[in-house]
Amino acid sequence: MEKLLVKSFPLRKVVAVGLLVALGIVAAPFSIPVGVAKVYPVQHAINVLAGAMLGPGPAVIAALLTSTLRNLMGTGTPLAFPGSIFGALLAGLAFRYLKRDYFAAAGEVIGTGFIGALVAFPLAKWILGFAGMAYAFIIPFALSSLAGSFIGLIILRLWSKSIARS
User: Fold this and answer.
1) Does residue 31 lie in a domain region?
2) Does 8 score more than 90 pLDDT?
3) Quick check: 51 and 88 in contact, CB under 8 A?
């Protein structure tokens, strides 16, 4: 099983996913509570980075692991799952097919800010007992993903400039 994992999923990607998850866990205390959601721009930046550098599959794995660990540590809510997973998936797919870092950032905003927020609404209603309207999730999710995507885009641009110099 170990050989199959390394063969189908290169070791560098495994290490990169682990480092991004560790970054997400270390930065977990830096969230802003907005209603029933915790606004967490660091996760959105990580989704953009993972989507552009590793692809949609590893980005989703990193988002899922980070959300799981944050929930286990008490620094996240169940709403972390739909937001981060859809954002990471769309960031990776947008970068894969459109080949531009700003499309990865846009994919994160659409995936988290809109799709993730709409999926989070029934989850919050059934699990957390939220009685509000769906737009109550779209606004904080969209603002958080916009801020985090911008941070991720800046990091990607700086990273690509440093690689071009070396």
Assistant:
1) no
2) no
3) yes
Is residue 129, in this structure, part of any structural domain at all? yes
**Residues with Cβ within 8 Å of residue 74, at least 6 apart in sequence:** none
Nearest to 130 by CA among 36, 32, 33: 36
Nearest-angstrom CA–CA distance, 29 and 22: 13
How far is residue 150's CA from residue 126's CA, in Å, rounded to a whole number? 32
Looking at the domain assignment, is residue 32 inside a domain? no
User: pLDDT digit string (tens) for 111-126?
Assistant: 999 999 888 888 777 7
pTM reported for the whole predicted model? 0.86
The total number of structural domains that make up the chain:
1
- Determine the pLDDT at residue 4: 40
- Give the per-residue pLDDT at 77: 78
Map 120-138 to HEC letters. Answer: HHHHHHHHCCCCCCCHHHH
Sign of the four-CA dihedral 104, 106, 110, 116? positive
Span 93-121, average pLDDT: 93
CATH number at 127 reads: 1.10.1760
- Residue partners of 164: CB distance under 8 A and separation at least 6: none
